[in-house]
Amino acid sequence: MQSKLLRGTFILTVGTILSKILGLIYVIPFFQIVGREGTVLYQFSYVPYTIFISIATAGVPLAVSKFISKYNALEEYAVGRKLFKSGLVIMLTTGIVAFLIMYLAAPMLAEMSIGDEKADLENVTTVMRAVSFALIVVPFMSLIRGYFQGHQSMGPSALSQVVEQIVRITFTLLGAYIVLQVFHGKMVTAVSVATFAAFTGAIGGLLVLFWYWYKRKPYLDELLTHDKGTMDISIKEIYKEIFISAFPFVLVGIANPLFQAIDQFTFTQAMEAIGKKKVAEAYFSILNFESHKIVIIPVSLATGFSLALVPSITKAFVEGNGKSLNHQLNQTFQVLLFLTLPAAIGLSLLAEPVYTAFYEHNLLGAGVLSTYAPVAILFSLYSVTAAILQGINEQRFTILSLLVGLLIKLTLNIPLIELMEIKGAVLATTLGYSASIIINIIVIKKFAKYPFRLVWRRSLLIAIFAGLMWVGTEVVYRVLLLFLSPESKVQSVAIILISAAVGAGIYFYLGLKSGLARRLFGNRVDRLLSKLKLFGRRKAVEN
Fold first, then answer.
1. 20 to 30 A from 99, CA-CA: which of 68, 343, 464, 477?
2. Positive or negative CA dihedral for 42, 43, 45, 50?
């Protein structure tokens, strides 16, 4: 049973990571097809869509999977099936309602985003309405994924995620290319096709789930014949518990889109106030689409490692094992900082070639990315501290911390943009997230009785290693600039690969020599070293 669970978790993790990688890489060809004009339109639609989809699902699929797993363990299979059927109706209903609200509210959302220019309003409205159709399918599909996960069957979820991304990205790129290059159509049509791809991707993912359902229905029906039938559970009570427990995490899940939404609804207004409305949309694309997509890369990797430790935190807290809890929290914070800090610093240092490799050579874009990259550390810290609050059953404070952060962002965004343009928006985000993290840390310290002494000491050590890595990478980067140009895509990739390899080598060596890497990752480090040594020996034999 344990090996099956581990295998399932591994499959789901691989599927999720592959899905995320696909979701990041496609922006490179997409930018080449539609340019900045297209990415501006695209981003205007996707921030509201992300918020609507989070509200429409409201954490129900994940919660339903947990309840189904619980009642299956009790051999009350009929309860899980009843919950699944009612969940499908609820998700279909909330999806249709969310679609109607977004579709009908699109003109108002467009006006809030860009002001009252008629041509632009019509374009943004059209694109928003194109993406809204996905809201009908995605919540429904998410619940079916949750149902399979509740039966410890992770393959359907993993494959449907990957297929959804492949279909969406293929439709996005081919659709935009055919509209612009084959039919010589308008940009708004190309971007509308690209955003409608969210609907086609969801259909692709749903068809995979339907196929799995067809294949596994005999087995699932057979489980019902072994149902004990001793429990009469009120679905109403279960859903009440689901929504109460899920609500704080819906807010955490949409924290980043909410911060982006504040930029979307205030950026143009602030730029217009300082006489720069003409460049506002291009600047907005650089901030909220181009730079943000790159900054999220180290966040996804680091939080994935750190959040894996959260179940252990929950277990230690529930058992009242203070020593184990402190150890788990130490590990979580240190792993997070050990992975995120060098990635953010490296990204900031190599911003110019990275921006060129992803999009085009643009000094403004590179400058914004360089400023924005360190904020990745805050994004990661917020996600993990919020998850820890869940682990110690103090999730109510996540609502308070998020609201304080959003209030600071909302209050400071316009004045800071008027003062510093794009970098003002980045600073407002930094201050908002910092406030939220400080509140989360205070709550963790108070309720988990966690002393941060070791983390502060290790953070200083990690910062010293990252600083030495930065110096080494900076030297190599400057030398490479004598021979290679960050204005060329191919040469930018070469600069990134060589500089990053040197930086990672310095950082890993310091982590290894100090013993910090082994303390954080245990025997994984020894396994990696043995593989590298084996690889080295093979090379020597071949030569």
1. 68
2. positive
